[in-house]
Amino acid sequence: MEVLLTKFQIKEHPILDPIDANTVSFTFNGKKMKGPESMAVSSVLFMNGVKIFGHHYKDNSPQGIFCVNGQCAQCMLIIDGNPVKSCMVPLKEGMIVKSVEGLPELPEVTSVPPVSNVEEIEVDVLIIGAGPSGLSAAKILGEKGVNVLLIDDKDRLGGKLVLQTHKFFGSQEDVYAGTRGIDIADILSESVRELSTVEIWLESIALAVYSDKKVGILKDNKKYIIVTPKKLLVATGAREKMLTFPGNTLPGVYGAGAFQTLVNRDLVKSSNRIFIIGGGNVGLIAGYHAIQAGIDVVGLVEALPYCGGYRVHEDKLRRSGVPIYTSHTILSAHGTDNVESITIAELDKDWNPISGTERSFECDTVLIAVGLDPVNEFYLKAMEYELEVWSAGDAEEIAEASAAIFTGRIAGIKILESLGIKTGENITELEEKANIMKKHPAKPKEMVYPIEDEGIFPVFHCTQDIPCDPCTSVCPQGQIILDDETILGLPQFKGEESCTNCGRCIAVCPGLAVTIVDYRKDVLNPLVTIPNEMGIDSIKKGDNVVVMSNTDDLGEFEVTRVRTLKNYPKTQLIVLQLPKEVAKLAIGIRVQKEKVSEPMEIYHKPPLGDEAIVCRCERTTAGEIRKWIRKGITDINQLKAITRAAAGACGGKTCTLLLNRLFREEGIKDVTQGTLRPLFVEVPLGIFANVDEEED
């Protein structure tokens, strides 16, 4: 097998194994290139150093990726003569890939291809989406012998779990807490594949829900099939939100989920220097994933006075060396053909940028992580047409993947009950657990350190009541408990029996927030064990490392021992001898050098906000939209007719939220929403006739 190596590949990753795939040849705009077979074409182009996929017909502006999830149309390319989303097309030998330059021309019709009848099937339950909620529902339905058709538009099961290399929070018993998302995807996928009554269609897209209670599905991206389900579960996940700022459509500005797809799924080194916009869990986790992939994180801005994600994620990023600017926002991104720098500024109490606080930073990528929006149009249309339909996961309510496992299971039980099948499950109890997993994190508490200066014991550096219990499950002495009867309590060491220094509590912790301090040999300079997930060979005995607390640099110290545990092979346990004054404070190792995050000497003055693009597909600016709002337009359909905003290939999936935000900013509360298109995904017309085209 030929091994493809480019400078844009991640050749070594602390968590992920190298991709094992055949190397095939293709052409892009006539230039010969190579890539891993079956990898998404968009990722292969990045691997070959191509980040500009084409130019917009309206202003010739460079076009790059945005969502890499099939929800927008930024990655549109002509592949073997067809305009398609390149993030959804697997690479094959000999593909001819071309940019969309200007408006594409329709091919000349020389003959009418034969047409075949559209196949129709019936199923007990159709599940759209094979992420954590869809898989959990399919599992409980399949175990009861229900005929289930599970479809997903990706080439593998697991949804966003396949992008998550970190360990999950929640209950170890209920949602596999302490296990990495990629491994949870394998666990759930295997449990569903074993069920004979569950049929799985991958690379199959639900196109529409029809008034006669049928669902149109494009199977294998080539065959149109009409499915009539007795019950329908929509588990379609979420799409990323966008922001309006000058430069927001430059290649290099894209969603955090797109970044994780490139880096964690396809092992593509998509960037050298990133800046993150948004301090929720998605942004914080993406920053940590970037560091693991060898990518510099210049900084993160959050408009709120605090980060909305889990404090342990924030702490993990800070002690890695990433500055976090709360009460700040991005003003603009700068560059000609790609992002070269960004400008940020501090916000006042009224959310306005404070003059004189502007700073610019060099970066080649801006990750937008400002929240998610449910992909729920299938559910809403099914409700309108009175299908028996349920929703689960992010399609029901935006929350963590661990909550989606619960809501998928709950939906599966409700569907079973609607079929007259008893389960014996306590739905009320499951819903209570799901609600706990959905809760926004509470305000962090003040850290309380153990007062002892003798013996050996763990130190828990988590200060926020979040759902998490893995450390209580792995202690062989049963000495770790939560200080609350619910899973939201903070962990404590009872100390009734001596700590065995097994290190399991350190290795299992999703927040990397546990250490062990050992005074037994030297009371003045105890041994401290801290976690490291930057590679099992990244730190060796004898190395000097900068040890961090959650807030400060504690100094440089020598590593006295390194070990890994059999059940947690990707987490190093680093042992250092530290002065007792800092021993209990130590929690991590600084990875990035301070110079990575230094601002430029002169900041780039941002363009006017009205120049920001609202509709990426049609290049409609905020200024154009505001002009018509101020003239009295309050109907998005009218705006669409006048400006073409929301009339592009993505069907308004990205810009509708931004349009509503502009209405709010202009003081308009009563807005007529746009009409949803009958098809939620663009598709060639020939698909509906099952046109049989001969293979060349």
Structure commentary:
With 696 residues, this protein is of the alpha/beta class. It has four domains: 23-102 and 242-368, FAD/NAD(P)-binding domain (3-Layer(bba) Sandwich); 120-238 and 377-438, FAD/NAD(P)-binding domain (3-Layer(bba) Sandwich); 456-597, no CATH class; 608-696, Arc Repressor Mutant, subunit A, CATH 1.10.10. Helices cover 21% and strands 25% of the residues. It has 16 helices and 36 strands. The strands form nine sheets. Strands 9, 10, 11, 12, 13, 14 and 25 form a seven-stranded mixed beta sheet that branches. A seven-stranded antiparallel beta sheet has the order 26-29-30-33-32-31-34. Helix 2 links the parallel strand 9 and strand 10. Helix 2 packs parallel to helix 4 (181-193), helix 6 (281-292) packs parallel to helix 7 and helix 9 (401-418) runs antiparallel to helix 10 (427-438). The longest helix is centred in the middle third of the chain and has 18 residues, at 401-418. The mean pLDDT is 93.
Compile the SSE list and pairings.
Blueprint: E1 23-28, E2 31-36, H1 41-47, E3 54-55, E4 62-63, E5 76-79, E6 82-85, E7 96-98, E8 100-101, E9 119-128, H2 132-143, E10 148-151, H3 172-175, H4 181-193, E11 198-201, E12 205-209, E13 215-219, E14 223-234, E15 238-240, E16 253-255, H5 256-265, E17 273-277, H6 281-292, E18 296-302, H7 311-320, E19 324-326, E20 328-334, E21 341-346, E22 359-362, E23 365-368, E24 372-374, H8 377-384, E25 389-391, H9 401-418, H10 427-438, E26 456-460, H11 470-474, E27 480-482, E28 491-493, H12 504-508, E29 514-518, E30 527-532, E31 544-548, E32 553-565, E33 568-577, H13 580-583, E34 588-589, E35 613-615, E36 620-621, H14 622-630, H15 636-643, H16 656-665
Parallel strand pairs: 1-7, 3-8, 9-10, 9-14, 10-11, 14-25, 16-23, 17-18, 17-23, 18-19
Antiparallel strand pairs: 1-2, 3-4, 5-6, 5-7, 12-13, 13-14, 15-24, 20-21, 21-22, 26-29, 27-28, 29-30, 30-33, 31-32, 31-34, 32-33, 35-36
Helix pairs in contact: 2-4, 2-9, 5-6, 6-7, 9-10
